[in-house]
Amino acid sequence: MKNFIEEVTWRGMLHDVMPGTEEHLMEQMRVAYVGIDPTADSLHIGHLVGVMLLKHFQLSGHKPLALVGGATGMIGDPSGKSNERNLLDEPTLRHNQEAIKGQLSRFLDFTSDAANAAELVNNYDWMKNFSFLDFIRDVGKHITVNYMMAKDSVKKRLSSEAAEGMSFTEFTYQLVQGYDFLHLYREKHCTLQMGGSDQWGNITTGTELVRRIASGKAYALTCPLITKADGTKFGKSEGGNIWLDSARTSPYKFYQYWLNTSDVDAEKYIKIFTFLSKEEIEVLTEKHKEAPHLRLLQKRLAEETTVMVHSAEDLENAIKASNILFGNSTSDDLKQLDEATFLDVFDGVPQAEISRNEIEAGINIVDVLNEKTGFLKSNGEARRALTANSISLNREKVTEEFILSSKDLINNQFVLLQSGKKNYFVVRVV
């Protein structure tokens, strides 16, 4: 049995913990759960902290439960939000649940015969037949309105600064989440709930229900909400969330997100989002401080997270794709990129379209550079650049005699033009 509290403390993953939790966990194998919002069919990296908590819990010899909030997903958690969320129907929730379980399986052992094998549970399964009258009689009477109003998540939404008030539906959220803890305490011997620091109020409502209704003792643990040193939101890029599903966020973009973290953030994130040991991280951090320009922390962080979420092959492809812009890549490297990765790599690069018929007939490079794309301003400029040997097509230098044809297409669809070292232009064949 490893000391779970000690592990998450040095990793910077502990915000609040109820007194006695460490001793409770060191006595024997325990069961803990983390709630996961099922409003999409993929997790994003904002969910990763909770998933890492569950993984460390399992590695410490305990049993993790991942609770997909099918019922609470139908209500909406007021914590830290200014508006209610859209409510989901049951088929959508079931689809999302299966997709999320597939992603969690990369982290948690659900299938072994070990006593601490992980389980996936859905609170919709025990809430769907719970009538409103039964709920307010059996659960609601044990928690006072005064107790519920004292929670920070409720106070913020009811404060004079809040643009909108709070519906009764959202107000009851903490009771429903609290009942989840009570149910898992009774059915799964679960004695610990973990979550983000904004969940403390909801979690302690659960420990209170366990105490008042089941005369039991339950515990709460929260991790800090992950922030970025520059004040921007963690887990977001210009295109939105960084998802774990490669169809939503390509492995290349995923890799780039971690690679582009600041030194301050990389030093923090490598403890939270990898399973590297304390000794490995300390050595790596010292090396990084000696030569920060090499970005050793960022590279290792990006490598570890990409392999963990995707695969070693995806990491290799992401590194190749990164080298297209920043390294000595070749035409063959370019042609190995799939369409999604190619578009990700050259996101924001100017583009023009040329018809497939024209490409099949063959187009002189001077016409490609000026008349067909506008990449260069005149035929004269195009000829001067070609004479100066500063034009590349798909990473290979070309001369004024070059004719662009179908055999030059990347993925039978793209051509990459380059003037000098940094001026790129994408031709899309339509």
UniProtKB/TrEMBL annotation:
Keyword flag Acetylation: no
EC number(s) given by UniProt: 6.1.1.1
Signal peptide coordinates: none
Catalyzed reactions: tRNA(Tyr) + L-tyrosine + ATP = L-tyrosyl-tRNA(Tyr) + AMP + diphosphate + H(+)
Biological-process GO terms, alphabetical: tyrosyl-tRNA aminoacylation
Alphabetical list of InterPro entries matching this protein: aa-tRNA-synth_I_CS, aa-tRNA-synth_Ic, Rossmann-like_a/b/a_fold, S4_RNA-bd_sf, SYY-like_C, Tyr-tRNA-ligase, Tyr-tRNA-ligase_bac-type, Tyr-tRNA-ligase_bac_1
Residues that, per the record, bind L-tyrosine: 33, 173, 177
One Pfam match: SYY_C-terminal
Short sequence motif named 'HIGH' region, residue ranges: 38-47
GO CC term (a single one): cytosol
Binding annotation for ATP: 236
Domain of life, source organism: Bacteria
Sequence motif: 'KMSKS' region, positions: 233-237
MF terms (GO), sorted A to Z: ATP binding; protein homodimerization activity; RNA binding; tyrosine-tRNA ligase activity
Residue ranges annotated for the Tyrosine--tRNA ligase SYY-like C-terminal domain, each copy included: 344-427
Main localization, broad class: cytoplasm
Swiss-Prot/TrEMBL keywords: Aminoacyl-tRNA synthetase, ATP-binding, Cytoplasm, Ligase, Nucleotide-binding, Protein biosynthesis, RNA-binding
Similarity section: Belongs to the class-I aminoacyl-tRNA synthetase family. TyrS type 1 subfamily.
Known partners and oligomeric status: Homodimer.
Task of the protein: Catalyzes the attachment of tyrosine to tRNA(Tyr) in a two-step reaction: tyrosine is first activated by ATP to form Tyr-AMP and then transferred to the acceptor end of tRNA(Tyr).
NCBIfam families linked: tyrS
Name used for this protein in its record: Tyrosine--tRNA ligase
Organism: Flavobacterium caseinilyticum
Gene coding for it: tyrS
